[in-house]
Every structure is written in structure tokens, then in C-alpha cells.
Amino acid sequence: MAGSTGCCNAPSSTEFSTMNPFRKRLHRLVAALTFSLAAAGAHAQAELPRLPVTVFGAPSQSVWIPSLIQHLGLDRKHGFELVVTQKPSKVAYTDFATGNDPVCYCAAIAAVARFKQQGADITLLWNIFNFETDVVVRDPALKSLEQLRGKTLQTDTITGSWALSRWFLQARGLDESTLTIQSTSARGAGALAELQLGRVDALLVNPTESAAAVAQGRGELHAIPVFDQTVWQQVSGTDFVPSITLGVASSWIEDPANQDLARRFYAANREAAAFIREQPAEAARLVAQDSRLDPESMESVLRRYRDLIRIEPLRRHLDTVALLTQKLLPEGGQLPRPLTDAELDTFVSTFDPEM
Q1: Could you tell me where the beta strands, DSSP code E, fall in 14-156?
Q2: What is the pTM of this model?
Q3: Domain of 149?
């Protein structure tokens, strides 16, 4: 209606000119305050500290939690902006070991311990995933790992998952003398084609790849778990193996600003992990595309493997890391030598993200 001035409408120039001085000053004050608040909000949003992290290329479980943090806005909720870059395993590890990427969300203990021995300036802050891998096979007669004798197994031997898998295979009497190992960096469809065409007998893959392969095999493929809890309890006294961790450059975490950023990221990690446990279907819907899986397969993966997510400061599990890096992995040939006590002490950070 002509001449109307509601709460949400600015006065026209004619109306403004006819206002008394008090009302003019009031409108100017409100306008200035509104502008200041909007500018402050935009500035605060623009000034959020950025946290670039590297993950393995999908399909990899290292994608799940960073992707979910972004989709749920947990980074901004906790006062930072998460920037995620997917890279092939060899590139990701090279860039982490050389310091080009100071924050690695895919630092497998068994793999990056080698970098520590070689003088890399790295340390591990917290555990993300416990160890688990699967051997995917097409032959319905293959029901156990022991039946792989004389077969050809294809896997990515650059990863820490392979180093630990190799130890568990050796515990079953399988090594290079009884099993042909074919190394590849191929993921997803490329690796699956090798199995379906009969060029290899088995694929050793991470949980995401396993679920995707079995789903795509439409009943022709099945998976055999590699982790043997009984064997592990006999040597460690624990029921799980810390495996995939958050690794950072030691010099990076020495900066108080980065320590604060790491604590914010840790809080977002814990919240995302709780969301996966409580709402796996919705979590799957959000991260399926980034993980290169259909939502149904993604949900199956999350439901099956959500107990593998164990986000805790790694220092709490120093004895287990010592067992891995000072005894089991060197004895199995996955490390050239045991970590020294001094190397171990700096390899597993004393930084507490919960303080």
C-alpha cells in the first residue's frame, strides 16, 4: 500500500525526507548496525583458518570422515575450513614424507614407519581406523586364506595395509614362496577386471573396495577377511590393531595455532564418527559419491565396518605401536629394522587433542 512502512521495508526517499530528525537518526543507526553485522559475519566466515588434508584416492576409507565433515558442516561448526585432496597412494605418501603435504589423513603405521627411519620429519597424532583388509576371490571353492597357496594375489604393495596383511598372511603360512604377489596401483574397476578376466586369482583390498567388488560381482565374488583376532590377541593381548592414523609434519604441530586447529579437527572427527554409528544410511547418502560407491553399497560398507572407526590419541596405544614397529613388522620383513626407542617416542606424538 502506498506510503506503507513495514519492519522489513526501507523508507522511500519521500518518506525519509518527511521524517522528524529523531526517526532519521534512528534509521541511520539501524542501517549502519545492520551493515556492520553483515560485514563482520562475512569477515569472520572468510577468516576461518584453512586445514588442507591429503587422503588416498577413492575408493578408500580415508575419504569417509573428511567428506562427511564437509557435508555436515562440522568444520565450520568447530571454527575451521577443511580442504580435502585425494591422491594416489604413492603420490600421497611421497608428498607426506617430503613435507609437501604436512597433514596426511591416510598415514598407515606400517607404511610411514619406514619414512621415520629414513629421517622424515613426521609424527602421528591419533588413530582413525583399526586394521582390516579382505581377499576377494571368484572361485567358490576358496573359503580360507590357506587355500590361496599357489595362487596369484594382486594388491597395492606401497600401502601400510599390505604390510600388516602380509604379516597376517605369514601367520597362516603364506609368503612369496607359496603365493605369487602381483603389485598394482590400480583401484576399483581396473583391479576388479583383472580378477573377473581370470588374470589373477585374488585381490587384497581395503573394506570399501571389497564391498564394491562383491556388489559389482553380483553373486560371483566373495570376500575372505584377513584380520585374525585370535592370532592378534596371542601376540599383543589386545583385540584390535591401530592402523590408519592422522600423520603430520613434526614442525607443523609445534605451532600453537596448528595445535588449536588439530584439536578442532579432532572434535569434528569424533562427531562425524558418532554420526556414522548412529545414522549409517544418511552418512552413506552423503559420502557415497566422494567414495565412488552407490549409496546402497556405501551403507553396507559403513554398517559392516563402522566398528573399525576408533578415533583416539595414538599415544594411548604406544605399547601396541612398539610391538608393531619394533618386533612384528621387522621380523616379517615389512621394516628394514626395528624403530629405536628414540624414533618411536617421536613417531607417536605426545600431543593430546582432547586437552
Answers
A1: 50-56, 81-87, 103-108, 122-130, 134-137, 152-155
A2: 0.78
A3: 134-226
